Amino acid sequence: MLGLRGCRLGITRPEIIEMQVRAVLEAALNAIDAGVDARPDIMIPLVGKVEEFRHQAALVRQVAAQVFEERGKTCDYKIGTMIEIPRAALVAHEIAQEADFFSFGSNDLTQMTFGYSRDDVGSFLPKYMEKGILLDDPFVTLDVDGVGQLIKMTVEKGRAVKPGLKIGVCGEHGGDPRSVRFFANEADLTYVSCSPFRVPIARLAAAQASAQETIRYKEAEWATLEAEEQENNPNDPDGSSSAGMIMCWSRFPFR
User: Fold this and answer.
1) What is the DSSP-derived secondary structure letter of residue 130?
2) Regions in the chain scoring below 50 on pLDDT
């Protein structure tokens, strides 16, 4: 992800972005004409400074105004950014003031955080795993201790500015069950996105993550109620009161 790519390419060669934005918005208007409720999300990639986002967002709006004037109609659209560079996580509160949504490019964020390249990681990854330096392929299962902390930081900083900020993840991690559990239960992301063949796995993992979170919540709720019950009824230490039995019954289906 180094070099002339992403928003850097868009800033130095704006005609590429103009073409892409025009294509997206014209397709959306065509879809609306066909009866589809099209509302495109346009993501600015590889943003590391809020100034980069502002520049590209202004260009998107300029092209959108031209397309809408030409077509005589408009559509709703949002402009967000991919969080793929560690610096973006550090200044997420600044970017959130400008962006409508975030989406983690988890593959590229992993590359940038580790300093690994997917082009040649296969040349040393097996040896790293053999020697126990890595327990998992970080491009398959998210590194929650490193990359995961950047994700949590981004969510915290972004939603401190915009509490309802939509934040998701786009990458192969979105189809990995362990990673999905982290995204859902620890990072509190809004959605995951992954390649088509991983969608069934991702849906199952998301459902399991939701169920696990519900169980944890109910267990914590039960522990609190049980403690209150014992405090209020010191002569009933075994929790055999009617209130205790009702709480136990309501808790049972989650086991």
Assistant:
1) H
2) 240-255
